[in-house]
Amino acid sequence: MQPLVVCLWICVGTIAGTWLLSVLTREYSWVDRIWSISPIVYLWVFAAASGFADARLVLMAVLVTLWGVRLTINFGRKGGYARGGEDYRWAALRERMPKAAFQAFNLFFIAGYQNVLILGMTLSAFTVYQAGPSPLGVADVIVAVLFLALLTGETIADQQQWNFHQWKKAESAAGRRPEPRFLQTGLFRYSRHPNFFFEQAQWWALYLFAIVATGTVLHWSILGPLLLTALFIGSTVFTESLSKARHPEYADYQASTSAIVPWFPRRRTADPAEAAAS
Q1: Cα distance between residue 278 and residue 274, in whole Å
Q2: Cβ–Cβ under 8 Å, residues 228 and 197
Q3: What is the model's pLDDT at position 183?
Q4: Residue 92: burial class (beta carbons within 10 Å; 0-12, 13-18, 19+)
Q5: pLDDT for 55-74, tens place per residue?
Q6: Average pLDDT taken over every residue of the chain
Q7: Which residues fall within 8 angstroms of residue 65, CB to CB, at 6 or more apart?
């Protein structure tokens, strides 16, 4: 059976499974819970279809496995796999939509579209599979190093965010109001969502392997990283609308700091350190 057909059947199964679980549990983060797992499965399906003889596919599968293990650990420590660990954004969206409309949204977007997107993110591996095995070269090494650098960047950003939220919990437990109320230092000084940037960039890096394998810059599997980027842009807009509603001072952070792509901060009306000391 062609590996793409196998992956399509897996995708159909995950759509049905995550939708059914959401209906039964009234929690809507089931796709989030498999987000770091499904791509690993897809990559190894493509690698196995080559008989593990395509070194480039095996390298891609190993890199995506590292990505998935790290993301799974980070998601787990935040309680993502625990009962009641639903992403707060789904709850906020549910409150804004009629019940029937949200259930349709759950079926077609949360369970349907997102699972298709996860498969789409990995289709650069199918392009590599179609191109056939060829020896690894300097370009492959450069792309692998780039991927690992981006993976390291996301790890640092997630750790900084984790440390900040642990500090906030400790301050609240001690009866103190945490100030500042959102992270503005470290990598978050240069991007409001550095982890989003590194996450997307890793999938663009994976697409580079397809370019190396085919010698063609543009091909249909670019839709995967393109649609992922579009999803992150939409998610950022919605997430920040919630942040701004909770923290009016977030508007100043928005005005001074790049949304996703890290860049030098602009002049601010208040320094985070001064805000913390006040």
Answers
A1: 6
A2: no
A3: 95
A4: middle
A5: 999 999 999 999 999 999 99
A6: 94
A7: 40, 43, 44
pLDDT at 114 over 80: yes
Print the domain residue range for 166. 3-277
The pLDDT score that the predictor gives to residue 276 is 42
Residues 6+ away with beta carbon under 8 Å from 149: none
Q: Whats the size of the chain, residue-wise?
A: 278
202 near 230, Cβ under 8 Å?
no
269 pLDDT tier (thresholds 50, 70, 90):
low
- Please state at what angle helix 114-121 crosses helix 38-49, rounded to 10 degrees: 40
Contact between 38 and 67 under an 8 Å Cβ cutoff? The reply is no
> Any idea which residue has 């499965």 for tokens?
41
Task: Give how many domains the chain has, as a whole number.
Answer: 1
Which residues does 48 contact at the CB level (< 8 Å), separation at least 6? 3
Q: Does residue 271 surpass a pLDDT of 60? A: no
CB-count exposure of residue 216 (10 Å: 0-12, 13-18, 19+): exposed
Burial 186-204 (b: 16+ CB within 10 A, else e): ebbbebbbbbbbbbbbbbb
CA distances to 108, 130, 153 from 115, in Å? 10, 23, 25
The structure's pTM equals: 0.92
Q: Are 112 and 15 contacting, i.e. CB atoms less than 8 angstroms apart?
A: yes
- pLDDT of res. 278: 34
